[in-house]
Each structure stands twice: as C-alpha cells, then as structure tokens.
Amino acid sequence: MAWTVQIGGKVDSTELRRPEYLQAQLREDEQPEIRIHRRLVLEPIGIPLQTFGSIQELLSILIDIVDVHESLVNQCDILHRDLSIQNTMCYNFDYESSTWPTLSENTDICTCLAERGEVLKKCKYHQGFLIDFNYAKFMDETPTISEGERMGTIPFMALDILHVFGSETGANVTHPPKHDLESIIYILLWICVLYSGPNSNPLAAHTMCLKPWAECKSLPQVEALWSTKTGELMTHVPLQHFSSYFGGLRPFTQRLYAAILNNHQGAITLTHDSLREILLDAFFQVEELSAVPAKHKGELLASTVKQAYC
After folding, report:
1. Percentage of residues in the chain with pLDDT exceeding 90?
2. Which helix (H) or strand (E) element contains residue 36?
3. First to last CA, the chain
4. Hey, where are the domains in the chain?
5. Which fold has domain 47-305?
6. Mapping DSSP to helix (H, G, I), strand (E, B) and coil, where does residue 93 land?
7. How do residues 176-218 score in pLDDT, each as one tens digit?
8. Ordered DSSP codes for 123-187
9. Is residue 45 classed exposed, middle or buried when 0-12, 13-18 and 19+ CB atoms within 10 A define those classes?
10. How far apart are CA 258 and CA 217, in angstroms?
11. Which of helix, strand or coil describes residue 292?
C-alpha cells in the first residue's frame, strides 16, 4: 500500500519545500526534477481488533479509537468517514518509552484516563488505531452525502448516512464527527453479538439478529436496514443476543443507544467525551469472572458489574 503525503492540503514535494533552490540550479531552457513524497507500507503494523484478550482490553482499544478520531478531527482537520471493524486495528504499544496523550478537557475524564493509564502499563494492553482513509476528507471541505452515495461500510453506517444512501428523496446530509462516533458503537455491538469471547471465531452474521446489517446488497435493503436500526433504538434487540461473555456490557450499551437516539432526534449528545465517558465507566466496572455455560458454543467467561471507580 502506498500513499502521497500532503502538507496543508498540498502534495509534499521538492517543488513545495525548495522552489527557489530548484529554479536557481537550472538553465533557462530546463525543467526542474520534482520529487514527490510518498510512503509505503511493506509489512503489517497491527493486528485485527477481534484479537482482544479481555473485555477490558477491547474497551481500552475502543477508547484509543475515540482518542485517535478526536486527534484527527481537532488537530489535523480530517474526518475518517468509514469506521468499521475492518478499519479499527491494534498494535503492541511501548509503555516504557512512550506516552499516550490525554485529549479531553473534562477533569473527571482526565482523572479516569490517568487511572486507566496505570492499568495499561500493568496489563500491557494493545493500543488502537485507524486504517483505510479512502473516504476521508478535510473538515474545511464540509463533507456531505448525497442520495445513493455510499460513504462507509454499510453495517456500521450512522443512521443519517444510511437513510440518505438508501433514499430516493434527493436529500443531502452533512457528515459531522458524531456519525463516525456512532459507527464505533455499532462495532462494539457487532463484537458482542457475534463473538463468544477472546480469541474466538465469529458466528455467521446472517444467522443472528444482525442478518439485516450483513446482507444489504441493494438500495431498498439499505432503506430497510435504516428502518430496522431506527426501531432498535427503542427495542435494543441486539442486546438480547449478546453472548454471555459480554453480558456485563448491556447497561453500558443501553446508554450508548440512548446517545444515538438523542442524536437521531437532533440533540448533540454523542461527542468524543460522552462516548469516552461511557466506555471508561465500562472499562472500570465490568469484571470477568469464572467460566460458565453460555448461549454460544463452549465454556465462556461471564461478566458482572462491580463498584464504579469513576
């Protein structure tokens, strides 16, 4: 994989960095040799999100994804626009020589993040990051979605994006950061329904309640999926199909559903801090216990809720 490096929206090249020098070395009839800055990925640098080793590590990786997304938006003016389980990865972080920045300005969240940092150093959890910026845009371009335009991976699309993608009304909708954050919630739901625990193979989505999510192949099906997922904001159907291992996450995913519902109704309640806060609450409150029989095959770990730390 290769990509061209940009600086301030312009291709990074010798022409950009040293225009006077290039011209000074040439005769009048010569054209300068312009070299473009490109980067190559020659070997894997991460592993799939699904390789998490515990509920706490999974939540920690998702918190990292929120941090990465916020950094892209606020520091780089870049909106990813395609958060999915395929595009969220993790890697071995060097806790001895590196530090992980705290982006939130909320004092309580910063305190929890500091406490989480101590857990990470002890447990050596993987860190999360994003890949695949094919749909990404600079924020100053005011990203919009038009009727029938695909933007993202269908099972993880925000409701507003799904509606426009499958719509025949000709309406447009902007794609603000909250839509990417909504996708992170769907990633968590996907894992909780289809995976029985760490190092497990996923169940076939078409055999589970997520069948409408996974089998969209036409615009009418996309519109039907929008209707299904809108109804799930009230019924919380996916929560009823969580594997036993993820049972302790139900109260927190109910809060996440409430945030999506408020967003869908026009309130801006799904922010980096609000999503980070719920994930942090789950990070400190969900405890893994001894193995018990579960709905899925095999012996699985159950989860319960203990006293909150933040």
Report:
1. 47
2. none
3. 42
4. 2-40, 47-305
5. Transferase(Phosphotransferase); domain 1 (1.10.510)
6. coil
7. 899 999 999 999 999 999 999 998 999 998 889 999 999 888 8
8. HTPPEEEE---TT-EEGGG--EE-TT---S-GGG--HHHHHHHT-SS---EE--HHHHHHHHHHH
9. exposed
10. 29
11. strand
